[in-house]
Amino acid sequence: MHIPDGFINVPVSGAAVLVSASAIALALKKSRGSMEQEVAPMAGLTAVFIFAVQMLNFPVAAGTSGHLLGGALAAILVGPWVALLAMTVVISLQAFIFADGGLSAIGLNIFNMGVITVLIGWFTFKFILKFLPKKNSSVVAASAIAAFISVPISALGFVVEYAIGGSGIIDLDKVLGAMLSVHVLIGLGEAAISALTIGAVLATRSDLVYGASRLLPKKDLKIKPVDLR
Known about the structure:
The chain is mainly alpha-helical. Helix content is 69%, strand content 3%. The protein has one domain (10-215): Arp2/3 complex 21 kDa subunit ARPC3 (Orthogonal Bundle). The chain has helices at residues 10-31, 39-54, 71-78, 80-98, 106-129, 136-165, 172-205, 218-221; strands at residues 58-61, 64-66. The protein has a two-stranded antiparallel ribbon with strand order 1-2. Helix 3 (71-78) packs across helix 4 and helix 5 packs antiparallel against helix 6 (136-165). The longest helix is centred in the C-terminal third of the chain and has 34 residues, at 172-205.
């Protein structure tokens, strides 16, 4: 999913930088009041977790591997605006430190793996929850579906960018088929990892799952004091 330097032309890459920068600026503004005592450290932990898991590839097809994108998971854990900031940090560190994705394509990569996955994942999650009972299992199920859907939609974002400004010689229909077939399978892995992660956090500290903050009963969200004596 990481786009290297020179794969998409300068005008499209530049436009992606402007769009991504605008989204980041909006996220900074929107998240300013939400960085509460519990949200800020949770955002850091989420970024570290996604960064670590993205380094682990799993086989998808012959000669192809995939990894967690994490945008939907981050949005459900800490909210869409904070999640976008966390994803921006992860994708930027990968580009500057590990050369995973080109520097000239950083706007494209943030847009595809950050903006698209976060927003699609979040709105899909909220939509699905409207039709499910208010309980932990509903949050886990909605998380899995949202994570799954966010991955091929992100892949479609790349296909559109390739169609507009791709510098490769591969036919667009082949790019579309390859990206969707592979990323549907990657989406299944994304769904499983997201469901397991959300389920584990809900089982121990449901108050830390932003997506469940207005869904579950208040008694489930109350933080119990710990006696350190």
